[in-house]
Structures are given as structure tokens and as C-alpha cells.
Design goal:
42% helix; single chain; 229 residues; four-stranded parallel beta sheet; alpha/beta; Rossmann fold; globular
Length: 229
């Protein structure tokens, strides 16, 4: 099935009844000196595309490339719409989507989006909307470190500047969380990196994307069993 943005409205109308709209949600925010600002959005889109390849009823919407990224303020290029705006935007976007589709899946690859998206989903469900949220998680470097850099080497190596990769704050996230909450990422690292991207590699990135894609497919299938497809 083609992507939503590539279709005409009559084509969407014919397929909408049997389709699930997947909306990738990312951010435009700093990811260290080696990664593009689109990293979270690129990962969210890649996971939606993997799901689309596995489940023919999935239709992928254009990505929402702005999120709640206030913790990255002070790093050039970061654009944040904040929690309240993101929550409202997603609620209204999904309400509009439900004019056409019966089910909507949100796939967010930015941790700062989690709380407002949970609230948005809660509101939509009180309106009897069939909406599901998937937020990929992995153990290890939380931001612009080994894992995200490896995934971007797998997805878009031409946009990764490995010669600029440097270690950032490598302390466990739980240890630095109080500092992050009060002062943002700038309070713990001048590079914007939480972790160490210097040994990232595409093979690790492919494995992680495969694992995250499998987790998404598992949750999707639990929500919409194949026999209902």
C-alpha cells in the first residue's frame, strides 16, 4: 500500500475502511555533533515503514516532525512546541483522522513526547476512539549515543558525521535525571550527547531496528490480530 501523502482522496476512500493509519511522531532537536536534527523522526518513520511491509492494512501518514523538546533548549536548531501544544495537536489530528479511518496508531521515537502523547491517547479513548501508542525503548545510551548513531548509520549513513562523534555524559540516566529535569541536557553535556557514539556501527543499528520493529509488530498484532485483517 502506498503512503498516505502519495494517494488521491478517492484512493484513500476506497481503502480507508480496511486500513489503519500509522502516524510517525518525532522531533526536530539536537542529536550531538554527529547526527541530524531529524534523527527521532527518521527512526519513527522507519519503524512505521517496517510495520507497513509486514501488515498490508497499515497506511503511513506524513511524519509529525515537531515535538516536546524543551530539555534540548540552548542547542542550535532545536525546535520545540512544548507538551501542551503537542497534546492538543495530536488530539485534533487524530480527531480529523477518525473522519476517515477507524483506527490510528501513533509511533513516537522521542522520549520527551511520551507524557503528552499518553494524555492525548487517554482523551481520545474517552471519546471511544480506537488509538494505540508505541514508544520504542532500548537499554543503554539514551540520547545521541551508541544506539541512535548506529540506527542512523543503518538508515541514512550519508547524514552521519562520524568524524565529529565524541563521548558525552556516560553516567546512568537515573543518576543524571535530577539535573536534566532542572537544567536540561545542557546541564550535563556541552555536546548534547548522553552516552558514547564513537563505536557505533550500521550492523548494530540494523539489529536494533529489527528488534524494535518486531516489538512494534508484536504490539500491533495483539491490538489487531491477523485474522481480522
Amino acid at each position: 500500500m502506498p503512503r498516505l501523502a502519495e494517494m488521491s482522496w478517492p484512493e484513500v476512500e476506497v481503502r480507508a475502511e480496511d486500513s489503519v493509519l500509522a502516524i510517525p511522531i518525532g522531533s526536530t532537536e539536537q542529536h550531538g555533533p554527529q547526527l541530524p536534527l531529524s534523527t527521532d523522526t527518521d527512526i519513527a518513520v522507519a519503524l512505521c515503514e517496517r510495520l507497513r511491509a509486514a501488515r498490508e492494512e497499515v497506511l503511513v501518514a506524513p511524519a509529525l516532525a515537531y515535538g516536546s523538546s524543551g530539555e534540548h533548549a540552548g542547542f542550535s536548531g532545536t525546535l520545540s512546541i512544548g507538551q501542551a501544544a503537542l497534546e492538543l495537536l495530536v488530539v485534533e489530528l487524530c480527531r480529523s483522522a477518525f473522519d476517515t479511518f477507524d483506527r490510528v496508531l501513533l509511533v513516537s521515537a522521542h522520549g520527551g513526547n511520551h507524557d503528552p502523547l499518553v494524555r492525548a491517547v487517554r482523551q481520545l479513548r474517552t471519546e471511544s476512539r480506537a488509538v494505540q501508542l508505541f514508544c520504542p525503548r532500548w537499554d543503554g545510551d539514551p540520547h545521541a549515543g551508541h544506539h541512535e548513531t548506529s540506527m542512523m548509520l543503518a538508515l541514512a549513513p550519508e547524514h552521519v558525521r562520524m568524524e565529529r562523534a565524541v563521548p558525552g555524559d556516560t553516567r546512568p540516566l537515573g543518576e543524571i535525571m535530577p539535573l536534566l529535569r532542572t537544567g536540561g541536557v545542557r546541564a550535563v553535556t556541552d555536546t548534547g550527547v548522553l552516552g558514547d557514539p564513537t563505536h557505533a556501527d550500521a550492523e548494530t543499528g540494523h539489529r536494533l531496528l529489527e528488534s524494535l520493529g518486531a516489538a512494534l509488530l508484536h504490539e500491533f498484532t495483539a491490538w489487531i490480530p491477523r485474522e481480522r485483517s
